[in-house]
Amino acid sequence: MLKTKKAFTLVEVLISLLISSFIMFGMMQIYNNLQKFIDKTYDFTKFNKKVYLLFNILEKDLSSAFITNLKEKKEDEKKDTKKFNECFKTDIYLGETFRHNKQKFELFKSLSFMTTNAFVIYDEKKARCVRVGYFLEKNKDLSKAGKLVYNLYRKETENIKNIDFKKQEDATEKDKKNNIKVFCIAENIKEFAIEYKGVLDKRDPGQGSGMTKEKKQEIKEKKLETSFEWGKKEGTQEILPNFVKIIVSFWDDKLSSENCFEKLIPIFVFEELKEKESENKENKKEENKEGANVIGSGEIQAGQIQGPVVENKI
Q1: Which of 49-53, 65-69, 84-88 shows the highest mean pLDDT?
Q2: In this structure, is residue 145 part of a structural domain?
Q3: 20 assigned to some structural domain
Q4: At 145, is the pLDDT very low, low, confident or very high (cuts 50, 70, 90)?
Q5: How far are the Cα atoms of 60, 67, 249 from residue 87, in angstroms, in the given order?
Q6: HEC string of the chain?
Q7: Residue 245 domain-assigned?
Q8: Which of 196, 213, 264, 269 satisfies CB 3.0 to 4.6 Å to 241 for a cystine?
Q9: Does residue 264 carry a pLDDT above 90?
Q10: Smallest Cα–Cα separation from 87: which of 160, 14, 142, 151?
Q11: Which of 141, 161, 157 is nearest to 149 (CA)?
């Protein structure tokens, strides 16, 4: 008699192939998802590094921005003091807007201001005042139809009157004051906007006539002014905003997806205290005069000395 050996049937082999194919397909899906996750984390860390450097430079420049009075001496006049009205000049691309978190933003174009954060200082202990400008320019080589790419440039000059960073014909390489340093600090930008926010004094019309200074100060109200072009509205020409909100989005290498970031930067602005100090001194003088002239119960004239009362008992 022939001996028969046990083996798998055709149906069992087909079922095993089907199960193994499902397992292989699942492993391929896991590998693809893992590879996509690694690529996303790599892109995210790359964007984070780029954004961190960008926000770090912007924060150092904007937080130390200031407005000052420039004094010019002329031959005919001894002193001519004028307020430098364009210490903080802003501009946008007209008609170009985008939306972020259901809010409309104007596309940033340029910003020019004075700051004490000079880019390169060697062997200098004192802060150096410079003019810094940020300019958003279109990258024509990478831009395509419907997909615009921008680069952000930082310009710096020691000539604080050069608002638009125009190159002077007489400037030489040794002339440090009129030289303009240009750095590209961000590339592959899709959208970039700066929203300026400041707290302004607000008064109701008709109030303030025939009133004392104390009552006028009590009537003053504060309002929050937000604008993409700071310095063009009335009341914002000669002051700095208190906060700056920055929104920026970057393209990936294939121009297929974007990553958006935002940051709120405070500007440390301090008002001049000369007027307030003089008013406080005048108020103190008036209080001292009133206290010296008052005579009443339990009060003493100026120059009189009070001592313990001693009763002589016999």
Answers
A1: 49-53
A2: yes
A3: no
A4: confident
A5: 17, 6, 28
A6: CCCCCCCCCHHHHHHHHHHHHHHHHHHHHHHHHHHHHHHHHHHHHHHHHHHHHHHHHHHHHHHCEECCEEEECCCCCCCEEEECCCCEEEEEEEEEEEEECCEEEEEEEEEEEEECCCCCCCCCCCCCCEEEEEEEEECCCCCECCECCEEEEEEEECCCCCCCCCCCCCCCCCCCCCCCEEEEEEEEEEEEEEEEEEEEEECCCCCCCCCCHHHHHHHCEEEEEEECCCCCCCCCCCCCCCEEEEEEEEECCCCCCEEEEEEEEECCCCCCCHHHHHHHHHHHHHHHHHHHHCCCCCCCCCCCCCCCCCCCCC
A7: yes
A8: 196
A9: yes
A10: 160
A11: 141
Highest mean pLDDT among 46-60, 109-123, 198-212, 231-245: 46-60
- Range ranked top by mean pLDDT from 78-82, 245-249, 256-260: 245-249
What is the rounded CA–CA span in Å between residue 90 and residue 192?
14
**0.85 exceeded by pTM:** no
Are 136 and 152 in contact by the 8 Å Cβ rule? The answer is: yes
Q: What is the pLDDT of residues 56-69, one digit of tens each?
A: 999 999 998 888 76
Name, in order, each residue with C-beta under 8 angstroms of 154's C-beta and a sequence gap of 6 or more. Answer: 57, 61, 119, 132, 133, 134, 182, 183, 184, 185
Confidence of residue 174 (pLDDT cuts 50, 70, 90): low
Q: Per-residue pLDDT for 300 more than 70?
A: no
Residue 308 lies in a domain: no
Number of domains composing the chain: 1
The structure tokens 């860390």 sit at 45
**Domain span including residue 125:** 31-71+79-205+214-272
